[in-house]
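Replying to the earlier thread about multi-chain prediction with a worked example.

Input:
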Amino acid sequence: MHEWALAEAVIKTALNVMNKEGGKKIVELNLVIGELQTIDMDAFTFAINELIKGTAMDGAKINYEFEKPVFKCLNCGYEWSIESLDKLLNEDEIEAIHFIPELSHVFVKCPKCGSPDFEVIKGRGVYIKSIKIQE
Amino acid sequence: MHEWALAEAVIKTALNVMNKEGGKKIVELNLVIGELQTIDMDAFTFAINELIKGTAMDGAKINYEFEKPVFKCLNCGYEWSIESLDKLLNEDEIEAIHFIPELSHVFVKCPKCGSPDFEVIKGRGVYIKSIKIQE
Amino acid sequence: MDPRLAIISERLSRVKRVIAVASGKGGVGKSVISTGLALILALKKKYKCGLLDLDFHGPSCHIILGVDKLDIVEEKGIIPPVINGIRFMSIIQFAEDKPVALRGRDISNAIIELLAITRWGDLDYLIIDMPPGMGDEALDTIRLMRNKEFLVITTPSKLSIGVVEKLISFLRSVNADIIGIIENMALSETSIVKEFSSRIGVRYLGKINYDPGLERCLGSVDCLMSTKFIENLQEILENI
Amino acid sequence: MDPRLAIISERLSRVKRVIAVASGKGGVGKSVISTGLALILALKKKYKCGLLDLDFHGPSCHIILGVDKLDIVEEKGIIPPVINGIRFMSIIQFAEDKPVALRGRDISNAIIELLAITRWGDLDYLIIDMPPGMGDEALDTIRLMRNKEFLVITTPSKLSIGVVEKLISFLRSVNADIIGIIENMALSETSIVKEFSSRIGVRYLGKINYDPGLERCLGSVDCLMSTKFIENLQEILENI
Ligand SMILES: Nc1ncnc2c1ncn2[C@@H]1O[C@H](COP(=O)(O)OP(=O)(O)O)[C@@H](O)[C@H]1O
Ligand SMILES: Nc1ncnc2c1ncn2[C@@H]1O[C@H](COP(=O)(O)OP(=O)(O)O)[C@@H](O)[C@H]1O
Ligand SMILES: [Mg+2]
Ligand SMILES: [Mg+2]
Ligand SMILES: [Mg+2]
Ligand SMILES: [Mg+2]
Ligand code: NI
Ligand code: NI
Ligand SMILES: [Zn+2]
Ligand SMILES: [Zn+2]
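Result:
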C-alpha cells in the first residue's frame, strides 16, 4: 500500500495548482498511469477517494488513462513496448520496479542488443495530465 | 576553427542518412544553429562548402535557422532567454561554452534564484532539422 | 505535471536536521563517517536518527552495518527498516546486490521517487551518505531538501583537497550551509587540511586518524563501536 | 538529429587501444594509475599515448602532471596539447579551476561534444581516467567507443570489492572487455583481492603497494617516475 503515498502526492499537487491559480474547487482531474509501475488501482483509487474527502477536490471527476511502457535503446536505437511485465520478470523484480521504476534498468534489457542503457519514453508512472478548476 | 570538425560531423551524418535510406543525392539540408555555441558562421559555412565538394551533397541547398538559447531553471522553474552572450560573459567564458556548451552551467546562473541547475531547452548547438534526399 | 515534487517537503517536515556527508572526492570515508555518525547519534546519544545511502552506484552503508537484505515495510508509503536503532534506506532494499547502472536522469528520478514515498516520521537527524561528484545527487539534495547542511570530508592529499575546494566553491555559489570540514585518514602529521580550511574560510572540525583496525570491524556494529575511528569521530561530533 | 554521434568513430579510428581505467569505487587510485600508465607508455616505452580525464566533477590528472592551465589549439578541431609526451585532454582545458557541477545529461552531452571535436590522430594507446560510478560516463564510454577495454582497480577493502563486483557484473552484462584487476594501496599482506579475482573469474594483474613517497611527487613528473608506485605499476604493465 505505498499507493497511498502516491495518491497523497497527486492530491497535494493538484490542490497546490488550484491555490496558485486562485481557484475554489477542482472539478476534474486527468491522471495518466504508466504501467511500468504496476500500480494497484484498487488501492490507489481507494486512497484518492479517501483523501479528497472534505477537500476542495471532493466530488471532482477523476479520469485514469493507462499507458503501456515504451523504451528506446540508447545503444542501438531500437524502440519497444512491453504488453505485460509478468511474462518477462519475476515477482521480486516487478516489485522493485513498482517502488522505483528506474530499477527497470537493472532487470530489463534491450531485446535487440541486450543493453540496459535505454530511456523509458512513455509509461513510467503516475502523472497529472490536466486539471479543471472552478474559479 | 573547430567549426571544421562540426561541419564534418554534419556532413558525415547527412550522408549516412542518405545511404541508409538508399538515396543518391542530398538536395536540401536544414540546419539549426543554437546560438549558445556562438559558432563562427563564416568558418562553418566555408567548411561545409569545402567538405561537400565531390560528395553526394555537392550542390545541395543548405538552410541555416538560428535559435536563441532558452534556459529553464530546475531549482525555481524560471524560464529565460539570452539575447547576446557578450553582455553577460567575458571572452574566455564564451570561448569555453563555444567548445562545450554544457560549461554554460559554470558561468550562467538563473537570473531569479542564482542556481546553475538549469536545462538548456533550446539553442544549445548545431543539429540537423531535416534532409531532402533524391532517390 | 510531476506529482511527486510537492509531497517531498511534507515527508521531511518532521526531520529536525538533514546532514549531507559529502566530498566531491571518492574514497575519503564518506560512507564510514556517515554510518558512524548515525550509529553514535542513535546508540550513544539516543537521538532518533535516519540514514539514507544516496550512492546508488556504490552503496556501502549496508556493508558497514552488516546487512545484506532489507525487508520492505509498506504503510501508506515505505517505512524505513530499523537497523541498530537507525532508520535506514538504501537502494539495496530494492536492487539487493545487483549492479544499478543508471544515467543521471534516472538517478534523479529514483531519488525523487524515494523521497516521495518514504515516511521518515519524527527524526532528530537524517544523515545522507552522498556519492562522490557534483551531479544529480548533489543537485537534487540542494533542490529538494529544505534544511540540509553539508559536512565535508577530505583526506590530507593534494588530489582530495583539489576536488573538495571545487565542491565548497560550488556549495557556496548555491548558498548551501556548510557545517565544516573533517580531515580523515591522516597517516602522517601534516597541517595541510587545517591550512586549507582557514584559507577558504570553512570551519576545521577535527581529524580522524587512519585506523588499521577499522577494516576488520566493517560489517559488525559492536566491533565498529569499539574502534579508534569511532572514538575520533565522536570527539569531532561535539563540534557539530 | 544529433550530427555528433556519427563522427566519433572516425575521430578514434587511428587509436589502436582504448583503455578505460575504472573501478566503480572512488579513491582507489584510478587517476594516479591512469596517469602513471600514460607516462610509462609515453616516456619509457616510447608509445604514442593519449590521456583523457573523463572525471569532470573531480579532474585530477592535471594535478598529478603538475599542469594548471592548458592552451586550446584549434586545427580543424581541437588538437590535444602534449604534456610530458602525452596528448592530454581534460575539462580543465575549458573550465580551468572552476567547479563543474553537471547533471548526467549534461555530462553525456559534454562527452559527446569532446569526442566529436578532438583530433587524437595516430595513437598506440588512449588511456581514459574514469570517474567513480556506473553512470553516464561509463555508459557513454561503452556506447560510443569501439575498441575499449576496461582495466579495473580496487583496494583490498571490503567496501571497494563490494562496489567493484557490481561494476564487473555490469561490464559483463554489456559484453565489455575486461583486461583484469589491479590491486592498489595494499598496506598489509592479504590475499582478499586475489581470491576475489579468481572467484569471479577475472585476471588478477598484480599489486601496487601503498607508497608513502607518492604524495610529495604529485605534480612533478620527474619525481613521480622515480617512485616505488611507478616501479610496481611498470611490472604490472608487462601483463597488460
Ligand atoms: N579513518 C580511517 N581509517 C582506516 N580506513 C578508513 C578510514 N576512513 C575510511 N577508511 C577506508 O577507506 C575506504 C574508503 O572509505 P569509504 O567510507 O568507502 O569512502 P567514500 O564513501 O568516501 O567512498 C574504505 O575502505 C574504508 O574502510
Ligand atoms: N599506491 C599508492 N600509494 C599511496 N597513495 C596512493 C596510492 N594510490 C593512490 N594513492 C592516493 O590515494 C588517493 C586516491 O587516488 P586517486 O588516483 O585520486 O583515486 P581515484 O582516481 O580512484 O579517485 C590519492 O590521494 C592518491 O595520491
Ligand atoms: Mg530511464
Ligand atoms: Mg543543460
Ligand atoms: Mg561511499
Ligand atoms: Mg580520479
Ligand atoms: Ni505499493
Ligand atoms: Ni571554434
Ligand atoms: Zn539496443
Ligand atoms: Zn532559478
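The interface with chain B takes residues 1-7, 10, 72, 74-78, 91, 94-95, 98-103, 106-107, 109-110, 113-114, 116-117, 119 of chain D (CB under 8 Å).

Feel free to reuse this layout for your own posts.
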